[in-house]
Amino acid sequence: MQRHDSIPRREFLRRSRDWSLGTAALALTPNLFLNQTRAQTGENPSELIRVGIIGTGGQGRANMMARSLVKHVVAVCDVDKSHAAAVARQLKERTGVEAKVFYDYRKLLEDRSIDAVLIGTPDHWHALPTIHACMAGKDVYVEKPLTLTIEEGQVMVQAARYYKRIVQTGSQQRSWPDEKFRRAAEYVRSERIGEIRTVRVGLPGVNYLDRAKPPRVPDSAPPPELDYDMWLGPAPFKPYTEKRVHPRHDAKDRPGWLCIRDYADGMLANWGAHLNDIALWATDTEHTGPVEIEATGHYPPAGNLWDVVQEFEAHFLFANGVRLTCRTDTPLLRFEGEEGRVEVRYPTQIEAQPESLLTWKPGPKDLALPLKPSEKRDFLDAVRFRQTPLYDAEAGHRNASLSHLALAALEVGRKLRWDPVAEVVRDDEAANACLKPRPYRAPWKL
After folding, report:
1. 3-class DSSP state for residue 293?
2. I need a labelling partner for 55 at 20 to 30 A (CA). Which of 25, 104, 192, 365 fits?
3. What is the pLDDT of residue 210?
4. CATH number of residue 19's parent domain
5. What is the secondary structure of 137-206 as a DSSP string?
6. Is the separation of the CB atoms in 275 and 333 below 8 Å?
7. Is residue 51 within 8 Å of 37, Cβ to Cβ?
8. How far apart, in whole angstroms, are the C-alpha atoms of residue 312 and residue 426?
9. What is the pTM assigned to this prediction?
10. Nearest one of 311, 339, 313 to 324, comparing CA atoms
11. pLDDT digits (tens, 9 = 90+) for 197-222
12. Residue 17 forms part of a structural domain
């Protein structure tokens, strides 16, 4: 990857177009390219990092109200006006702050008083706001899974580096309150169970969301409070139905888009963003990728509204010899080494062989992984001190790539040989075609 100061902005934008993400280059208004945050204009943001929330549904709302973050929120944005109004009211009740309310995230990014954004949108809307926020000089906390395609992740990572922005992938597992995931990773990184041979990850299937056999639902006109065309954004046009988007009157209920391939990869990506992350962190493969991938699984019958993969089993081989198996199962994470094993069953149960491992603490010569009170605190610290967060954009991209690669292997029905440096499947045009994103829908395309 070339350094920021060696790539003219015009060249960066050209590359964005070449990667089928031309919207990242041109969908902004001209003044947004020239926008600067208070930090860049000489004002000191250390007293209060001002955060705007983009996407205020269930996850965005929960993130906003986190203890370490809520006092920093000064603006909210949602294409559903009822969501935006509700969280603005909640924020005022909680902190007394009269938040600015936006319905188009580009307008929020034009606000020079905002230092950073938290993106809690559906997965298909993660890439563009992240790239645009970097261009606007704002740091980004973006919900997991990071992307819908590998190319999106490549451009997001490039944008973070080019514009020298903090971009954190949102997941709480590295800073889980009882530290069991971090402890398991420390055991592995400190070689307390010997050389790692296999890692097994169990993820819930789509039944976890009670979405396995959705009813057939009629199309209807979008509700007046929702800008449905903007909600679809770069995704293909499909008629509105409430079960495609989110429940109108219950932001806490699980939205239907989680189980639709135009917007998400299902539990393979959704929960994989948590547990696979710890697997990669522990085996020191979080900034690379596998070299071989195999996968099996099945989809719902053709014509189902909810159409993500239901049950799956994916195998990944890394260059360091680690074999990762990810399958539908009880949520768990198991590391098997030459001298023992450690297993964390979600959310807090931990077991180890030998049992004495559970009382072990890292010594001066052992690796002690960083500990943060929360992922939101980690993000604010990274913004304030210009340091890399625990779960950066590159790690989020590499994690999301696992689900994209597994689905490509499932689609073509054979083992894939992956080049983690060039990020292409070796000698397999059909598999590489599966990994390419659909053309972005107008007006989100050149």
Report:
1. strand
2. 25
3. 53
4. 3.40.50.720
5. T-EEEEESS--SSHHHHHHHHHHHHHTT--EEEE-SGGG-TT-HHHHHHHHHHTTTT-SEEEEEEEE--G
6. yes
7. no
8. 23
9. 0.89
10. 313
11. 999 999 997 665 555 455 567 789 99
12. yes
Contact residues for 286 (Cβ-Cβ < 8 A; gap 6+): 277, 280, 394, 395, 398, 399
Instruction: Tell me whether residue 153 is in a domain.
Output: yes
- The number of residues making up the chain comes to 446
Q: Are 214 and 106 in contact (CB under 8 A)?
A: no
> Count of alpha carbons within 13 Å of 401, Cβ hemisphere only?
31
Q: Which residues contact 47 (CB under 8 A, 6 or more apart)?
A: none
Q: State the residue for tokens 């000698």.
A: 427
Is the Cα dihedral 379, 100, 25, 142 positive or negative?
A: positive
Residue 138 falls within a domain, yes or no? yes
DSSP three-state, residue 222? coil
Alpha carbon 125 to its chain centroid, in Å, reads: 11
Domain containing 114: what range?
4-173
CA separation (Å) from 155 to 12, 152, 419?
10, 5, 18
Measure Cα distances from 233 to 18, 82, 308, 430 in Å.
Answer: 20, 19, 20, 27
- Do residues 59 and 120 make contact, with C-beta atoms less than 8 angstroms apart? yes
Relative to beta strand 116-119, strand 51-54 is: parallel
141/38: higher pLDDT: 141
Position 304 confidence tier, pLDDT thresholds 50, 70, 90? confident
Average model confidence (pLDDT) for the chain? 87
At 177, phi and psi to the nearest 5?
-55, -40
Which residue in 162, 185, 131, 133 sits closest to 391, CA to CA? 185
